[in-house]
Write a structure and sequence with these properties.
The protein is α/β, with parallel strands linked by helices and 452 residues long. It folds into 4 domains: 125 residues, Rossmann fold, CATH 3.40.50; 172 residues, Rossmann fold; 70 residues, Helicase, Ruva Protein, domain 3 (Orthogonal Bundle); 56 residues. It is 47% helix and 13% strand. The strands form 4 sheets. A 5-stranded parallel β-sheet has the order 2-1-3-4-5, with helices on both faces. A 5-stranded parallel β-sheet has the order 7-8-11-6-12. This is Regulator. One of its GO terms (molecular function) is ATP binding. Keywords: ATP-binding, Nucleotide-binding, Phosphoprotein.
């Protein structure tokens, strides 16, 4: 949401500008008829201010100086009935972003001016976010938590990736931390001082993907009132992270392939070729080899993006990492909420280790956050831990390739969870002996399987 202040003592003209700007649902417009009213509302943190030159209490140039001295980076547009060039030039020299003369074209000129300013604001915010990211120490052990063999293997792959500009393809189930790995690669590479641009394919309507990727020229299509740079252009010199790459439409896949092969792009509706120097990191929870067989993904694009493949292990295959991560998330929650860090009870640890976490690390964080809220003591108990698991249907369950022993273990584990780990009740429901359940609980195969 973009907050816009309009300061104009002409009620008709001010309301006209306000109405016109509010046609954009992203704009939150405030109208004031005096300079004093504007100054007393600066706590609302406007993104853009539009000042009328002639105001009843304070002249527009004086109001401009007051605001500009306090907030030198806040974009200010002057709207005036004066057509003198020297007045406009003086304002622009002082730091005004635009000078618009009051006439029948004012609202269209203001609309275009704000669009340009918003793009600059967006770029400035991206730079600020980049600086914040660079201030963090992207030490692997601090951003990718764990000590399992699977995670050590990931560290090894990341170390190889940061030594070159090879493309990287990250696969793994939802919630395993694919973007975290992508950032760890970027911010430890030679491109760390350049942009990191993340794009989620699943969140962009397919008819807008080309413009989102490559940008567009003014008039390229309905609504393209100004030139806009695309994500690849914004990422130039740095890294672009294409999340959920398997969701990309086949038509756009061919255009992406051409851009990667030729290392250049052309904005939609334009002719100018823009050279690319960008590292591509892709991620997906799908099996791209299977998607190629189904005809959903181009084989030639796959070989272009695969580069160094990194497969993230699910949380259930990471041994004691579940408890290490749980402790980390407890500390994070405690710090953010300014409370004393809680301990995990023995029963709570057992409950966490016995659960499969289909949502992986993302789900674990949600479970721990809730457990911290639910706890009434200095430690988290098993009763404080609640899971959000979505049950698998029988088709997906039977579609997994497991031994009969593993399926049996899964069934027993399911009913143990359903019966709140009551062995006697579970034995009665399944019509098996209690010793069978106790033996399986102590069996190494079940311990591995409990995390599946």
């Amino acid at each position: 949401m973009c907050k816009i202040f309009i300061i104009d003592d002409d009620p008709f003209f001010g309301e006209m500008l306000k109405y016109h700007l509010q046609l954009n649902p992203d704009y939150e417009v405030y109208l004031f008829d005096t300079a004093k009213a504007c100054l007393s509302n600066l706590y609302l943190n406007p993104d853009i201010i539009c000042i009328d030159f002639g105001l009843p209490d304070i002249q527009g140039d004086e109001l401009f100086k007051k605001i500009h001295n306090i907030y030198p980076d806040l974009p200010i547009i002057i709207i005036s009935g004066q057509e003198k060039i020297e007045v406009a030039i003086n304002f622009l020299k002082e730091g005004a972003k635009d000078y618009i003369v009051k006439n029948e074209h004012s609202k269209e000129l203001l609309w275009s001016s704000i669009l340009r300013l918003r793009e600059n604001i967006s770029l400035r915010k991206e730079v600020e976010e980049l600086k914040k990211e660079l201030e963090k120490k992207y030490t692997f052990e601090k951003t990718i938590i764990g000590q399992s063999e699977g995670i050590k293997n990931i560290f090894s792959k990341i170390n190889k990736a940061i030594k070159s500009n090879i493309n990287v393809s990250i696969t793994g189930e939802t919630g395993t931390g694919k973007e975290v790995v992508a950032k760890a690669i970027h911010y430890n590479s030679a491109k760390k001082n350049k942009p990191f641009i993340a794009v989620n394919m699943a969140a962009i309507p397919k008819e807008l993907v080309e413009s989102e990727f490559f940008g567009h020229e003014k008039g390229a299509f309905t609504g393209a009132t100004d030139r806009a740079s695309g994500k690849f252009e914004q990422a130039n010199g740095g890294t672009i992270f294409l999340d959920e790459i398997a969701e990309l439409d086949l038509n756009i896949q061919s255009k992406l392939l051409r851009a990667l092969q030729e290392r250049e792009i052309t904005r939609v509706g334009g002719n100018q070729k823009i050279k690319l120097d960008v590292r591509v990191i892709t991620a997906t929870h799908k099996n791209l080899a299977q998607e190629i067989k189904k005809g959903n993904f181009r084989e030639d694009l796959y070989y272009r993006i695969v580069g160094l493949p990194i497969e993230l292990p699910p949380l259930r295959d990471r041994d004691q990492d579940t408890l290490i991560l749980a402790k980390h998330f407890i500390e994070m929650f405690s710090k953010e909420n300014k409370i004393k860090a809680l301990a995990l009870s023995t029963d709570a640890k057992k409950k966490l280790l016995a659960y499969s976490f289909p949502g992986n690390v993302r789900e674990l964080k949600s479970v721990i956050d809730l457990a911290c809220v639910m706890s009434d003591t200095s430690e988290i108990t098993a009763e404080d831990i609640n899971f959000y698991a979505i049950e698998k249907d029988s088709e997906s369950f039977l579609g997994e390739q497991k031994t009969l022993k593993q399926y049996t273990s899964d069934i027993i584990l399911h009913f143990l969870k359903k019966n709140n780990h009551d062995v006697i009740k579970t034995a009665k429901v399944l019509d098996i002996g209690k010793s069978t359940i106790y033996n399986l609980i102590n069996n190494v195969d079940l311990k591995k399987n409990q995390n599946n």
